[in-house]
Write a structure and sequence with these properties.
about 170 residues; alpha/beta; two-stranded antiparallel ribbon; 5 helices; 6 strands; about 15% strand; globular
Length: about 170
């Protein structure tokens, strides 16, 4: 475990949806209304797996309710509003980490479920158009969500125009 050691690689981990009271409509849940001990346990259990590479940064955020992703009952506009609010917390937390803690280190982005979705947005919005930042990206581990990846036989395309699919173990 190198979570307290500056190895030159940092992990920015975004936890999955962890709510004990789940709103039925698309919305976000304030941080102080979320199950802190469950979230902390999830960060340790999932994000902690990557602590062998270096320091782990895992922000809390206003989580979007599951209906923001899964429901066909609500308007796309209502769902987008909730997701963009959750994303704004992640983007703000990432820039805080980048400006205050990163110190030029390489970055592993990792998340699960909603965390993966929000990191995919961050990749598209922040990394894809920034050559220098892309050069510091080791990998993005985005589990538990579907994304539009490159076309068959292609290494680039889909959600990200300039970030290729991993093609080697290295």
């Amino acid at each position: 475990n190198k979570a307290g050691e500056n190895t030159g690689i940092d992990v920015f981990f975004v936890h999955p949806t962890q709510l004990t009271t789940i709103p039925l409509q698309p919305t976000t849940v304030p941080i102080d209304e979320q199950p802190s001990s469950i979230i902390t346990g999830t960060i340790l259990a999932q994000g902690g797996l990557l602590a062998k590479y270096g320091r782990v940064f895992a922000p809390k955020y206003r989580q979007a309710s599951p209906s923001s992703f899964l429901s066909s009952t609500y308007s796309e506009s209502d769902k987008a509003t909730a997701l963009l609010e959750a994303y704004s917390d992640i983007k703000s937390a990432f820039y805080h980490y980048l400006n205050e803690h990163n110190n030029g280190n390489r970055i592993i982005l990792a998340g699960h479920s909603q965390g993966s979705f929000l990191l995919a947005m961050l990749l598209r919005d922040v990394f894809d158009s920034d050559i220098a930042l892309r050069g510091r990206l080791v990998t993005a581990v985005l589990a538990g969500m579907n994304f539009v990846y490159a076309s068959p036989q292609e290494l680039q395309g889909g959600w990200w125009e300039n970030i290729p699919i991993c093609s080697t173990v290295d």
